[in-house]
Amino acid sequence: MSVDRRKVAVFGAAFVLRLLLIGLFPSLPDLLTGRVEVSTPVNSFKRLQEGLFLYTRNVSPYDGGVFHQAPLLLPLFALLPDVRSSPLPTAIFYFLVDLVNAHALSTISESGQSIQGKLHSAVRKHIRWDGVSVAAWFLFNPFTIATCLARSTSVFTTSGILFAVSNAVGGNNVNAMLALGFASYLSLYPALLFIPLILLCYDQRTQNPLPNVAVFVAQQGAILLASVSGLLGLSYLITGNFWEFMSATYGFHLLVPDLTPNVGLWWYFFIEMFDSFREFFLGVFWLHLASYVGGMTVRLRRQPLFIITSLLGVFAIFKPYPSISDASLFFALLPLYRHLFPLMRYTFVAISVLLYSTLLGPAFYHLWIYAGSGNANFFYAITLVWSLGLSILLADSIFAALRDEWEQAHPEAQGVEVKQV
Amino acid sequence: MSAAIRNLRNNPKLLFVRLPNFLSFLCIVVGVVWLLLLPLNDYSRKTYISENALLPGQVHAYFSGSEQNVFRGYKQELDGLLNEGRERGGQKDDAEVTSTVSGKVQSIFLAVGLKIATQKYEYTSAGITHQGENVYAIIHAPRGDATEAIVLVAPWKTADDELNLNGVTLALTLARYFKRWSLWSKDIIFLITPDSKSGTQAWIDAYHDMHPESVQPLPLKSGALQGALVIEYPFDHHFNTLHIVYDGVNGQLPNLDLFNTAVSIAGGQMGIGSNLQEMWEHKDSYEHRLQTIFRGMTKQGLGYATGAHSSFMPYHIDAITLQPKGHGWEDEMALGRTIESICRSLNNLLEHLHQSFFFYLLMQSNRFVSIGTYLPSAMLIAGNFTIMAIALWLRTGYYLENKPKAAAQPKDKKKSVEPTAQAKGNGVEERHLALPLTLVVGLHLLGLVPLWMFNTLFHQYFTMATYIFVVVDIVLPLLLAALLSNGLGPFAPIIPQQYLLIKSFSLLLLGLSLSTLATLNFSLSFMIGLLCAPLCFITRLRTSSAPLRCSVSGLGLVLLNLLSPPTVLLGVCWYTGVSVETVLTQAAFGWDVWGMWTQVVVWCVWWPAWLIGCVLLGSSMF
Does the keyword rRNA-binding apply (chain B) (predicted)? Predict the structure, then answer.
């Protein structure tokens, strides 16, 4: 196997950059770990430490209501040396996870699935970035670096999703479902990607009589269920109390009891709400989030990988506990659609809005929490702007994908300015 | 109207080149005029006490009569010790004086019946070591539960480095006097620091357990600090006005209510006039108001600590310094009563000061403008860069003047493979982003080098470093411009579109940094915005005649170099008569001790933007 020198250079540079950052600024990881933009109650490394402390002392990690992450992370992190005395091994572990994610991403890109699917073939095939560039885009994205340095456990969910997709485009649907099971086990919401992932797997089937759709779905569903229940079983063995960890993790994801500020739209809304409406709006918010799956799947049936990409964008905006790691996953998959960039109309606006909110968010949080001269509305306004920026980017990319599909159907209309079709 | 719009659509040069220039210029002009309008009565307001619990001047202040004898006694004791020290070793032998005097201060506090503690600290910055020992004492509130406290600070050296003997004595007398009252519901902490620069910083850091290793932790603590007053009285004669200093580190300000309380108690209850921003002769005219605003903005923008009170601000503790000034008939007892009355008002507080404004510009002790009124001026100036950045971005996509020339350079791979590609987009030109992005990001990171340098060098090299930097600022843009025009490393020589993109990205970053900054430190954002304003209108010249181009761009570069950060620093130092070394030593001290970040803005926002402007102009020579 020939070693791709460019890839080695990019991966090596990304690794060295992260190492340099923690070497030059030793307090940076702890600073980032404490930032609300990076660490939410469901992926915070600080909370993981708390859970780990309880776990290693044979107390239920969910006692005290601080830790809300999957139990299997505990034995994994118990293997690593203590972070306070020797932070380097944990940091390097996270760096490696990032590299592995980037590798999965480059595999997805190399498959060319984003350009040439079974049912769709992009018009501007020549405009594309190779796998190494896409991986570099992911590895050198400041949001990815911040997530990695903050040791947020979202990176494992990211790995699960990226591996599910990379296996699916490789036609390896059992592994894809196992990876998706892992991601869903960690964070619950990736389970919503089941349908587009099935489509992606199904489109990879090449045997002549295509398998029956219902049977195929049932098979894959069974694999997913088996993997999730296997992981849950292991978790039961670790914690010993099934319902306690279920309610502390998935119950926490579903019912959103912790309203610590984050970059999402839920916390402020639920702080302001009267308690009697809480259940109703929880249902509405979750329904809203889940409803995108159906709509996108129907409308973009011909490009299943694009459904996954845009759904990840939707999750980054509308999840109950989003952080910049979700945005970085969305940004990681977008360069696969480099051929759509010429069709997008508001990239500059969207990127300016995102840059503005990236700078103003911490500033307003500072004014609110530390300086005391601002209030919660300052920060909430910026999270709205951030979500607006992401929405513009998402809507614009969906527009571009639809336009691409339309141009494929109407080759004569390429490059023509169209107002209404 | 519709005719004008149609005209615009049909005339891309007007739409993409003239209009943005005009809009940007308009933004700058309106921004500046806006600021100039603020002193008018229509745009400013009279101050008022917003927190009703404060009740300023509603209590009788009893500090007088026999307390004056106590004051004189303490003063004589301290003066004697100081003189002894002076006779033995002169002013030089500070350590000796400090330890005996500090022992005396402690014994006085102990005799009054207070708990005392000391704290040693040491800071090193720019090769200078600052060390000392804080002494503090706590009156436990008879009616409180030690969850809240007020701080009275008396530094041995005032902000102007004068011996603050009367101030310290007054603090000791007040300690004795306050101890006898049973009405305090908040603890009162008396803090005697050796100087105004580092002592309070060490103490307040340690109070919140945020101190570096060279600073001792505090053995004795009280509750959450609600407010702090710094007492300065560095002369022996009577005074006639009270100068109130309120600027904090990084331009943070105390709650306006605290300032108003001090003004209202001094003026209303004691009949002492108050001044601010060293405006001794304030006639309440437009010029004087504007001058006061400008002085306030300068201090806020530079972000240094203007007194011992400044260190409290980052911890969200409102603090002011009271400085008696002038010759008059008010004595130390009047100052003591003022402080007593302010303490009584703070004692009344039910919650932390929050009612009134934290962002304001004062133009007179009883007149101010609030953030909603003044913010647009800085935002307009920051916005002008954003407008230009967006216009340049659009221009690179839709309108390039010399199109045939751009198309005649199909050196880029994508273009040569599929020359029709760009036409197939949305009718949008393909933009080549890699080089502009790398350059802009790289130059911003390069700003870390001078930032690091000017904060770690030893103080004796600062002047030399500044001159070296002036030279670097002349050479570096030309070097970069030459490299860009002739191609560097893996990059092909730059194409005209990329010059516009470089400018667009640089201005976008500048605009968004400045608008963020405007919410944190209005004045700094305004000043940097004005200094950067020419960058908006600088482009690569494209006149065909080479000599003309070279001479015009050379002249432009000379003018721009007059606006570079080191030149501006030298100019300001020359104008104010302060040495460059003093300014930079102070800045390094601010960075190391106060947590001041003005330098970050200068080197990582202003300097890169300036450098890119120079590169663009310089590139017209090649």
Answer: no
ipTM value: 0.80
B391: closest chain A residue by CA: A348
Residue where the block lists tokens 């002894």: B84
Q: Considering the domain boundaries, does residue A324 fall inside one?
A: yes
Cβ distance of A372 and B513 shorter than 8 Å: no
Q: Is residue A113 part of a domain?
A: yes
Mean pLDDT of A404-410: 87
DSSP classification of residue B192: E
The beta-carbon neighbor of A367 closest among B314, B386, B519 is B519
- For the record, the structure tokens of B231 come out as 């007492």
Measured N-to-C along each axis, helices A131-139 and A5-24 cross at an angle, to the nearest 10 degrees, of 0
3-state DSSP helix/strand/coil % of chain A, to nearest 5: 70, 0, 30
Domain ranges of chain B: 12-40+380-403+429-621, 52-365
Q: Please determine, for residue B420, whether its predicted confidence score (pLDDT) is greater than 60.
A: no
In this structure, the strands spanning B224-231 and B148-155 are parallel
For residue B284, the one-letter residue type is D
Which residues is B123 bridged to in the sheet?
B130
Kindly determine whether residue A348 and residue B390, on different chains, have CB atoms separated by under 8 Å.
Answer: yes
Domain that holds residue A407: 5-413
Chain A residues 344-363 with CB within 8 Å of chain B: 345, 348, 352, 355-356, 359-360, 363
Name the fold adopted by B52-365. Answer: Aminopeptidase (3.40.630)
Query: How is residue B75 written in tokens?
Result: 């003063």
Mutation choice for B interface testing from A127, A367, A406 by most B CBs within 10 A: A127
Q: How far apart are the first and last CA of chain B?
A: 43
Question: Which residues of chain B are at the A interface, by a Cβ-Cβ cutoff of 8 Å?
Answer: 252, 314, 316, 352, 354, 358-359, 386, 389-390, 393, 414, 417-418, 421-428, 430, 508-509, 512-513, 515-516, 519-520
What distance in Å separates the CA atoms of residue B263 and residue B274, rounded to the nearest whole number? 6
Is residue A418 a part of any domain in this protein?
no
Of A416 and B187, the one with more pLDDT: B187
As for how many domains chain A has, the answer is: 1
For chain B, helix (H) and strand (E) counts, in that order, are 24, 11
Assign B127 a pLDDT band (cuts: 50, 70, 90).
Answer: confident
Whether B91 has a pLDDT exceeding 90, the answer reads: no
**Is residue A421 included in any domain, yes or no?**
no
C-beta atoms of B424 and A366 within 8 A: no
**Using an 8 Å Cβ cutoff, are A11 and A3 in contact?**
no
